[in-house]
Write a structure and sequence with these properties.
Layout: H1 2-34, E1 39-45, E2 47-63, E3 66-69, E4 75-80, E5 87-88, E6 93-97, H2 100-135, H3 141-174, E7 176-178, E8 183-185, E9 195-196, E10 205-208, E11 213-220, H4 224-231, E12 238-242, E13 249-263, E14 268-275, E15 287-304, E16 309-311, E17 314-320, E18 326-330, E19 332-337, E20 340-345, E21 352-356, E22 367-370
Parallel strand pairs: 1-22
Antiparallel strand pairs: 1-21, 2-11, 2-15, 3-10, 4-6, 4-9, 5-8, 6-7, 8-10, 11-14, 12-13, 12-15, 13-14, 15-20, 16-17, 17-18, 17-21, 19-20
Helix pairs in contact: 2-3
């Protein structure tokens, strides 16, 4: 009998201990949840200012003009009058080909003209005499006509000699090769003393115009409509040439050409900008980041780029309420530039947003606003609140 009483008491004690422990645990958990400490964050303010809108593309610098200088007559390269890498102007002497054969040809043509001119003068005198004689019927008309034909023949020979003289003079001028444009010479392709020919394909030297200079770059075809909205009104768009670090601006130019077709293989459109390049920071063949300045938006809303978070439903930001709780707000981002995000929708000027510390936040979380990293210590915003307000 006593054994059954003891067993019953043990069972009743176990049941009471289990139920009392569960209630205590629940109460403790509730008390712990009610006293969750605020999350430390760094806050920022939604600012309103003018924001430039850029379209970014990759481009290649090209010379505005490039000329391969070639010989137009055959002969020995007698003189090289330029230095490799030298800046030359239009008309500057580059090389001189042996002129002796061409001077001799010019002298020969001039002598031939003098000979034919003397014969023409004599034939004209005879024609004058024959005119009187045929009038008096001393000579036949046939003799007169023959003399007249001879005069015409010699006159044509003199004019042909004049053309031969001009041709010889042109060939002589071709022996002195001058620069056809203003630019910079490249590496010498033929050394002094070599025989050059007009049929040579390599040329003597390449001259490249460095200022002004061109930049060919590409943009997605979707941007063409926005570009046309500005260019069709006569507006000249500015293009920035930015170094590969995407920070250093090398030069500022103007958009000059939009290609007349879209590349179907890449879905891009080619554009051409011209730069004055006064400091020669742009060089032919150089890869450059091109930034087309499309417009400047006034009174635009911007926040630090770290404010914008990405989720399954798109971009969002944590907005700090007056009671130091946070709210998730969907946002529409127009562009991110120089560490700032341009916001089209979702935020208002002057609102407080979380810049750093988002990884511990949930909707409704309490926050304590601290100074940004590296800033001098200051009293957090929550320090001005009463303890009861932080609970």
């Amino acid at each position: 009998m006593w054994l059954w009483v003891v067993i019953a008491l043990v069972l009743l004690g176990g049941i009471w201990a289990y139920t009392h422990r569960g209630a205590s645990t629940t109460a403790a958990a509730g008390a712990s949840g009610a006293k969750s400490p605020p999350v430390p964050v760094v806050a920022g303010t939604v600012e309103q200012k003018e924001v430039p809108i850029y379209l970014d593309g990759l481009g290649t610098v090209q010379a505005l003009n490039t000329v391969t200088v070639r010989a137009r007559v055959d002969g020995q390269l007698e003189k090289v009058a330029y230095v490799e890498g030298q800046d030359v102007k239009v008309g500057d002497v580059l090389v001189v080909i042996d002129q002796a054969p061409y001077k001799a040809a010019l002298d020969q043509a001039q002598a031939k003209q003098n000979q034919d001119q003397a014969q023409l003068s004599n034939a004209k005198l005879d024609l004058t005499r024959y005119t009187d004689l045929v009038t008096k019927k001393v000579i036949s008309s046939q003799q007169f006509d023959t003399q007249k034909a001879l005069v015409d023949q010699l006159d044509a020979a003199v004019r042909n000699d004049g053309a031969a003289i001009e041709s010889a003079r042109v060939n002589l001028n071709y022996t002195t090769i001058v620069s056809p444009l203003e630019g910079r010479t490249g590496i010498r392709l033929v050394d002094q003393g070599n025989i050059v020919h007009a049929a040579d394909q390599n040329g003597l030297v390449v001259i490249t115009q460095l200022h002004p200079i061109s930049l060919i770059f590409t943009l997605p075809e979707q941007t063409l409509e926005d570009i046309h909205k500005h260019t069709t009104t006569g507006e000249v768009l500015t293009v920035l040439a930015v170094d590969r670090d995407n920070k250093t601006t090398l030069d500022e130019g103007k958009l000059t050409v939009i290609d007349n077709q879209i590349d179907t293989t890449t879905g891009t459109i080619r554009l051409k900008a011209t730069f004055q390049n006064p400091k020669l920071q742009l060089w032919p063949g150089q890869f450059i980041n091109a930034r087309l300045h499309l417009e400047t938006r006034p009174n635009s809303l911007v926040v630090p780029a770290s404010v914008v978070q990405r989720g399954p439903d798109g971009a969002y930001a944590f907005v700090i309420q007056d009671d130091l709780t946070v709210q998730i707000r969907p946002v529409k981002v127009a562009q991110i530039e120089n560490g700032e995000a341009l916001i089209d929708e979702g935020l208002a000027a002057g609102e407080k947003v979380v810049v750093d510390g988002q990884y511990k936040l949930q909707p409704g979380s309490k926050v304590i606003v601290g100074p940004p990293p590296g800033a001098s210590p200051a009293a957090p915003e929550s320090a001005h609140k009463q303890p009861s307000e932080l609970k």
